[in-house]
């Protein structure tokens, strides 16, 4: 069943009912000011950091789940209704929510009044615009009143939801014409404030939540709206809000635009001349004057659309498969931008107060983003690397505002260091900008401990190669990519909860997955070293990679598939000898991607085993058989009920690893079959089972052991976005950036047909045509570049050349 449809022309998903299985959300904002917005107008805004600078309040775990947002109430004498239907839930005569790229639009109507609400964050401005167009579709004049409503958050979202003894006394606002300023904390900090304004005179306002809603009332039918009379309340403490009342009469057929702006402003450092406690409003004025008229707003919206069209055009495919085109050209790239911006901080499943930027997460997000805005990827790499410790290990997370490592979580995830090599090598391949390696970057954010980025990579590599266990495999530490595989928490007493904060290096637990990473990214590191002219390091790295390759063959192969790990007692994890958890997905995908076992014929076996033991119609599960009880020597993984999350859920993130691995051995049919199973657009028709948004990936789909097999959770913020984009764009469609140029080597299913692709690469545009006359899955028999025959799949990048016309003949 579907709850809407894709409009590819407009790059939108159009939701046709407010009753989607879960809130289906979108993100507004590209750089600093961000909003989450659901298909019923729920959500919240923040500036840079969803924890530290939260602008509007949102209550996770609310009843109903999604019942706070930027709401507009219309009281037409008969009914009180909202354009997105929440929070009144008054049935409307028509409803559509168009989630587009960086904007959402709500079209609804009731009693002859049409509302068209467009929400977006302009490029380079710290505000969200809500343009509300109201049209009287009857043949008589219509009189009604409109009330806006946002609830302010007192900045630090954790403090806001815990420290009531203080917070209920500190809320302050200021009112200036149609602008309501929220200035809590301004008294001592005088740094920042937010404001909510409308571009017309108002008939009243409210800034106290209690005054607006009425005592003991929810927000569905506020007292002020029912009475049609705002209280002109001025909040002092308690719960500051901003609400405008605007009384309107529209003649038959008449339309009226109202522009609401929710903005954020920071004062310049120099505070001397302002009166204490009075907001210095010039920052707000500067923003507001840009959005006073419909023309200004329309121009800003056009600019946003042009910005996105240009970005998305950097990778554009035309194949005969509309799902592939839609995902590659629109939604998958869009999600990559969102995951790059948010990391794992703010979604409807991530509260914005828990996790900030993840070291491994952001490094992987970058893989799907680097082609869009390489300059921002560069900046991000330097931020991430600055949180690395001198020994090469890393803070697992950092806060986006301060860019400082998160002490509560600390370090000890032994895969983290190698992801830095993955990110930097992707950046180097995309841009050819080797100068980044000479950038001086702090260790642990301390200036006195700085070294060139290249040295950071060397320490990443060395951290792994110097932390090996008895089987010469890398120590897993607290966990590797699989956060829940806590093999060193055996010291926990039975009956006590697992400890994920155990010692950073377990006594002996080892990870075959990290071994696969080490081989894959160790080879990249060696290539980077050669490019830097550091042949000695390169040669040494190659030797260590070879040794690791051998260690995996010697101690990491279980007969039919790769082992997952050894626990702290040197017992096998992910082996046919185990009672449960006999086979895991991660080492199969990663070892084969690294090339391990390909020439030995093991790769095929491992991937066949994945198909035999882990496959379902909704995707590949992370492990089988599921753990049916909690095991002290395994930790959090066995704390989940079977079929959910890391305990045999379909973790979408590593499905593309297996798909890419299939392309390594040339099996295009199977690679594509895997791609399709989790691809949102392909499964749009089962939205009632899948439940999350059909235009983006979710972290997890419940596995075969789960009660709700096929049901997804944790949409949007997942490494799945980047990895499926890498899979589709590089492995399946085969356009692979490399250090010296663009390599084209597709691996497609039979019957996929010819396709065309445009790819911007280092400021040159490549017009690529792939022809497959023999209908093969992999193999290139001829390449033509600018009309001339060309040797091999790699098309070297030539400085200054702006366009390439390439035809690739598979066969
Ligand atoms: C989840 C993981 C997640 C981790 C983050 C665990 O409970 O299962 O998926 O990475 O928390 O801390
Ligand atoms: C989600 C986390 O964000 C990611 O870092 C981790 O690799 C996966 N869960 C698997 O545990």
Automatic annotation (TrEMBL):
Pfam families attached to this UniProt entry: GH94_b-supersand, Glyco_hydro_94
Keywords (A to Z) from UniProt: Glycosyltransferase, Transferase
Record-annotated Glycosyl hydrolase 94 catalytic domain positions: 307-734
Domain Glycosyl hydrolase 94 supersandwich: 11-270
A GO MF label: transferase activity
Transmembrane segments: none
The name this protein goes by in its record: Glycosyl transferase
Organism: Blautia wexlerae
């Amino acid at each position: 069943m579907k709850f809407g449809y894709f409009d590819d022309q407009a790059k939108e998903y159009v939701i046709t009912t407010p009753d989607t299985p879960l809130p289906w959300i979108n993100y507004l904002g590209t750089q600093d000011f961000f909003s989450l917005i659901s298909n019923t107008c729920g959500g919240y805004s923040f500036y840079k950091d969803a924890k530290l600078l939260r602008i509007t309040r949102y209550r996770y775990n609310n009843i109903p789940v999604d019942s706070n947002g930027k709401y507009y109430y219309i009281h037409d004498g008969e009914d009180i209704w909202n354009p997105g239907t929440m929070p009144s839930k008054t049935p409307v005569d028509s409803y559509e929510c168009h989630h587009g790229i960086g904007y959402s639009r709500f079209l609804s109507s009731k009693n002859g009044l049409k509302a068209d609400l467009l929400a977006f964050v302009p490029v380079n401005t710290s505000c969200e615009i809500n343009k509300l167009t109201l049209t009287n579709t009857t043949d008589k004049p219509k009189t009604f009143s409109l009330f806006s409503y946002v609830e302010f958050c007192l900045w630090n979202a954790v403090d806001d939801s815990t420290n009531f003894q203080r917070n209920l006394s500190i809320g302050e606002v200021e009112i200036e014409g149609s602008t309501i300023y929220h200035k809590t904390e301004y008294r001592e900090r005088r740094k920042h404030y937010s404001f909510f304004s409308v571009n017309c005179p108002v008939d009243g306002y409210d800034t106290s939540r209690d005054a607006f809603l009425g005592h003991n009332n929810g927000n569905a039918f506020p007292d002020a709206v029912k009475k049609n009379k705002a209280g002109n309340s001025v909040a002092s403490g308690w719960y500051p809000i901003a609400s405008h009342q605007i009384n309107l009469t529209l003649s038959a057929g008449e339309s009226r635009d109202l522009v609401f702006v929710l903005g954020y402003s920071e004062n310049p450092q120099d505070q001397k001349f302002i009166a204490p406690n009075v907001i210095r409003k010039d920052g707000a004025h500067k923003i507001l004057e840009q959005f006073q008229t419909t023309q200004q707003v329309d121009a800003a919206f056009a600019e946003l659309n042009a910005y996105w069209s240009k970005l998305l055009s950097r990778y554009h495919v035309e194949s005969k498969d509309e799902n592939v085109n839609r995902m590659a050209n629109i939604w998958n790239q869009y999600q990559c931008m969102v995951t790059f911006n948010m990391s794992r901080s703010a979604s409807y499943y991530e509260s914005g107060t828990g996790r900030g930027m993840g070291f491994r997460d952001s490094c992987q997000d970058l893989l799907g983003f680097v082609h869009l805005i390489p300059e921002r990827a560069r900046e991000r790499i330097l931020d991430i690397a600055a949180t690395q410790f001198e020994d090469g290990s890393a803070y697992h997370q950092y806060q986006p505002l301060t860019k400082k490592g998160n002490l509560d979580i600390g370090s000890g995830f032994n895969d983290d260091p190698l992801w830095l090599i993955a990110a930097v090598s992707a950046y180097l391949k995309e841009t050819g900008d080797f100068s980044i390696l000479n950038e001086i970057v702090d260790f642990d954010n301390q200036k006195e401990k700085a070294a060139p980025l290249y040295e950071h990579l060397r320490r990443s590599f060395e951290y792994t190669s110097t932390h090996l266990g008895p089987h010469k495999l890398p120590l897993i530490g607290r966990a590797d990519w699989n956060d829940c595989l806590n093999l060193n928490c055996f010291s926990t007493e039975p009956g006590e909860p697992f400890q994920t904060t155990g010692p950073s290096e377990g006594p002996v637990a080892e990870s075959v997955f990290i071994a696969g990473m080490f081989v894959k990214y160790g080879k990249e590191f060696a290539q980077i070293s050669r490019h830097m002219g550091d042949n000695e390091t390169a040669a040494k790295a190659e030797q260590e990679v070879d040794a690791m390759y051998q260690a995996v063959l010697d101690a990491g192969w279980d007969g039919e598939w790769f082992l997952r790990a050894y626990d702290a007692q040197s017992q096998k994890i992910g082996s046919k000898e185990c009672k449960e958890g006999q086979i895991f997905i991660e080492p199969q995908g990663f070892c084969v991607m690294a090339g391990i076992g390909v020439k030995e014929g093991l790769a095929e076996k491992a991937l066949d085993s994945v198909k035999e033991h882990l496959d379902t119609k909704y995707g590949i599960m992370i492990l089988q058989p599921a753990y049916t009880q909690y095991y002290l020597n395994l930790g959090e993984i066995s704390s989940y009920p079977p079929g959910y999350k890391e305990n045999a859920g379909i973790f979408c993130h590593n499905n593309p690893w297996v798909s890419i691995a299939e392309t390594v051995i040339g099996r295009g049919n199977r690679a594509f079959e895997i791609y399709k199973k989790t691809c949102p657009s392909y499964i749009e028709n089962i939205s009632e089972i899948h439940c999350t948004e059909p235009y983006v990936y979710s972290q997890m789909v419940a596995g075969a052991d789960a009660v709700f097999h096929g049901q997804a959770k944790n949409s949007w913020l997942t490494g799945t976005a980047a990895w499926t984009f890498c899979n589709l764009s590089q492995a399946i469609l085969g356009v692979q950036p490399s250090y010296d140029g663009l390599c084209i080597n597709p691996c497609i299913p039979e019957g996929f047909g010819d396709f065309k692709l445009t790819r911007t690469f280092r400021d040159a545009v490549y017009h690529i045509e792939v022809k497959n006359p023999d209908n093969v899955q992999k193999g290139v028999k001829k390449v033509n570049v600018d009309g001339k025959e060309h040797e091999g799949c790699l098309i070297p990048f030539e400085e200054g050349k702006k366009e390439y016309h390439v035809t690739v003949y598979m066969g």
